[in-house]
Design brief:
This protein is 73% helix and 4% strand. The chain has 498 residues and is mainly alpha-helical. The chain has a 3-stranded antiparallel β-sheet, sandwiched between helices. β1 and β2 form a beta hairpin. The relative contact order is 0.06.
């Protein structure tokens, strides 16, 4: 009642409203304590108290029928595990499970495993009470590695994951425990949860870390997996994780530079198109009506703008549909048709300025990756295979394939880069120098640093060049439309003066 009187004194509302408000406040308190009492009664009746008799599990609100269903599922699971015995699949498959965590909250999820028994054992070790584990074609379709919902970790998240993992291992925390801690830290990233649990499961079963990552499908990049495999052989996992963290940090910087360079022109272009379309569709028709009523004299520019406005009003939806279809077709062909993608990239790489942006970016990633692979003693043929998969540029993939063929024939790596239009002379001669001095990894790193700086410089200059050009273009177009509208108005004013 004290709270109610405070509210009454503070708000000073009319008496009927105060009585109505107080009634609902009191009823709310009664319902709150009634529900709270019933929840404690339910917990006592169905035995949800822990053995201590004082601490109650959180988030448990199960009826007697729900509890019986869960107990029945748990009994069925025990029978399935006994019937399955020690039978294990050769390759891990995805299992769906329903279990209660240590806080008493029901959870469902998926995990890769070799058998139901292994998955059940792992979940029990993680303090889960398991009620159901199953696998079928539907689960494989939705959650398998080849599923349409399969995801890949972004560079940003991968950078955080590697940095934290390297820090934990350096501080003396075992690998399995480090991955568990990261799993808890990244709980908000629900799309990664299955992969993290599967990695912990694989490590618990005695699998190598690189193999555990490889079994997550496209979740982790091939470069990282092969680098960790090489580090496991040499015992330099901590250093490799740190190097990979630095590598993906540089890749993320390059990606952000490209986004930064593209974002401003894209926003200005969309804004300009929207403004011009609005003027043509809604402003120009108002002036056309004025011209018709006053029989104003129309010049060529004004007539062109009026005709363009009429055409847009009649065919706007057809134009939008054509634009969507063209963009969709180009996207589909670029993603799924190799010949189209190669030709499209070839054209872009021969356009002024744009060609240097693409070439510098590809060379930066290629040489940085190659340097890391060589420094970690990954075989040359494996390195080239990885390099051909880290880029989507068909021109550079062809160079990688030619390099692998040259290595098989006993030729030098630099032979496939000689006189190639996509490889600048500076990069070629630096690679030749690295081969002749036996310091190819170090020389590749220098090439990467050089072209990374070149890429930053050209992106910055391009951004500085595009901004005034776009603004000038927008001003010119809008100015031409305004001029086309105003000139006939001057003619009307002259007629009135006469």
């Amino acid at each position: 009642m004290e709270n109610t009187s405070n509210i009454i004194n503070e708000k000073k509302l009319p008496l009927p409203i105060l009585i109505f408000q107080s009634f609902f406040l009191i009823m709310g308190d009664i319902i709150h304590y009634a529900v709270k009492g019933l929840s404690f009664m339910t917990i006592d009746m169905f035995g949800y108290r822990k053995k201590t008799g004082t601490t109650i599990k959180k988030n448990i609100r199960l009826s007697k029928s729900q509890l019986q269903k869960l107990q029945a599922k748990q009994a069925n699971l025990s029978k399935e595990l006994q019937a399955e015995g020690s039978v294990r699949s050769k390759n891990p498959i995805v299992y769906w499970y329903r279990a209660m965590n240590k806080d008493g909250k029901m959870e469902t999820g998926t995990i890769n495993g070799y058998s139901k028994l292994d998955v059940n054992t792992f979940l029990l070790q993680e303090s889960y009470t398991v009620y159901e584990i199953k696998n079928d074609k539907y689960i494989d379709f939705l959650y398998g590695d080849s599923s349409i919902f399969a995801t890949r970790m972004s560079n940003k998240d991968l950078l955080f994951w590697l940095t934290q993992l390297s820090t934990y291992i350096k501080s003396g925390i075992p690998l399995t425990d480090s991955v568990k801690i990261l799993n808890n830290q990244m709980k908000s990233k629900k799309r990664y949860r299955k992969a993290f649990q599967s990695i912990v499961y694989e490590l618990t079963m005695g699998e190598a870390f690189s193999k555990a990552l490889e079994k997550q499908g496209s979740m982790f990049p091939p470069l990282l997996i092969n680098m960790i495999r090489a580090a496991e052989a040499t015992g330099e996992l901590e250093a490799t994780l740190s190097d990979m963290s630095n590598y993906y940090e540089e890749v993320e910087k390059t990606r952000k530079q490209m986004i930064s360079a593209i974002m401003y022109p894209a926003i200005v272009s969309v804004f300009a198109t929207a403004v011009i379309t609005f003027i043509l569709l809604y402003v120009i028709p108002q002036f056309v009506q004025i011209y018709e009523e006053s029989d104003a004299e129309i010049n060529g520019l004004t007539l062109f703008i009026i005709n363009l406005s009429n055409y847009l009003q009649t065919h706007i939806w057809s134009i939008l549909l054509i634009i969507v279809l063209v963009i969709g077709t180009i996207y589909f062909c670029y993603k799924y048709i190799k010949a189209f993608r190669r030709n499209f990239q070839y054209i872009l790489m021969h356009l002024p300025i744009i060609k240097n942006v693409i070439i510098y970016k590809e060379l930066t990633i290629f040489t940085k990756t190659f340097s890391s692979l060589l420094a970690n003693n990954v075989f040359i043929t494996d390195s080239m295979d990885i390099l051909s998969r880290i880029t989507n540029n068909e021109i550079y993939k062809d160079i990688m394939e030619a390099t692998i063929k040259n290595i098989v024939k006993g030729d030098k790596i630099s032979a496939s880069f000689k006189d190639h239009w996509a490889i600048p002379d500076i990069a070629y001669y630096m690679i030749v120098t690295g081969e002749s001095t036996g310091q190819l990894a170090e020389m590749m790193k220098r090439v990467s640093d050089y072209y990374a700086e070149m890429h930053r410089s050209i992106v910055t200059n391009l951004k500085s060049f595009i901004e005034p050009v776009l603004i000038s273009l927008l001003a010119f177009v809008v100015g031409a439309i305004i001029l086309a509208v105003i000139v006939p108005m001057f003619g009307l004013v002259n007629q009135l003066d006469m």
